[in-house]
Amino acid sequence: MMENEIFRALADPTRRSIFEKLAAGGMNASSLRDGMEISQPAMSQHLSVLRKAGLVREERQGRFVNYEVDPDGLLLIARWLGKYRAYWPARIDALKILLKDMEP
Amino acid sequence: MMENEIFRALADPTRRSIFEKLAAGGMNASSLRDGMEISQPAMSQHLSVLRKAGLVREERQGRFVNYEVDPDGLLLIARWLGKYRAYWPARIDALKILLKDMEP
DNA sequence: GAATCACATAAGCCTATGCTTATGTATTCT
DNA sequence: AGAATACATAAGCATAGGCTTATGTGATTC
Fold first, then answer.
1. Which among B98, B7, B45, B91 is positioned nearest to A88, based on CA atoms?
2. Which distant-in-sequence residues (6+ apart) come within 8 Å of A14 by Cβ?
3. With contact defined as beta carbons under 8 Å apart, do A52 and A1 qualify?
4. Which stretches make up the HTH arsR-type domain (chains A, B) (predicted)?
5. Could you check: is the Cβ of residue A44 within 7 Å of any atom of nucleic acid strand C?
6. Cβ B14 to strand C below 7 Å
7. Residue B92 clears pLDDT 80, i.e. is over it
8. Given A97, B71, B76, B84, which is the most exposed site by the fewest CB atoms within 10 A?
């Protein structure tokens, strides 16, 4: 799981939508498609990209595969953001406090 | 400046390198190229993408153009990350405290 | 004011990427 | 066992994205 894969995964708006949907609660690939106008293979491919980036993880349940947000990916983004804390605007200045714990 | 432009800008490793270099201190486009094996037009194009994404801002100084990190872009990422605070791993749990201030 | 410098833009090429249709692979149901 | 369901993978296509070479533009220097 690399920084590069994460940002490339999030560069696609459809994938960010999928991720956002999963953040509201884990679900299987079919449920994810509901109301999304996306083909089954396209969804499968997007989930694969998200999974390889560490943003999402899967768990087989019978013939369904349940997907959920993987905190590991979010941690990497937080770390990336942390590198630039010197430039954070004042509104998130408080973040500085916790950054000590975030350093690799 | 949109969320989409930000993530797409950061999806390219060269652009993340440029951004990281700028985070160490503002400088002009030529200085940015030093030790980077990148053509002048390529650098100019990357800077344009970063600027349109709100990650970088420019200031003309004579015939040089000085670039520096734009905190606005970072704020957007922080906001995006904030949406998923429920999934942040324990190590950045402290972030929750400040999130009240980050909400739009 | 002509040459030079710093940078931006244009046009074209090549690869990456997201989609489609078709097919493969588990798992469940009858 | 056979059909159906849920999903993954393969192959092909069309567009997007990053690079290159060439040229344009604004500022400085001689």
1. B98
2. A38, A42, A46
3. yes
4. 1-89
5. no
6. no
7. no
8. A97
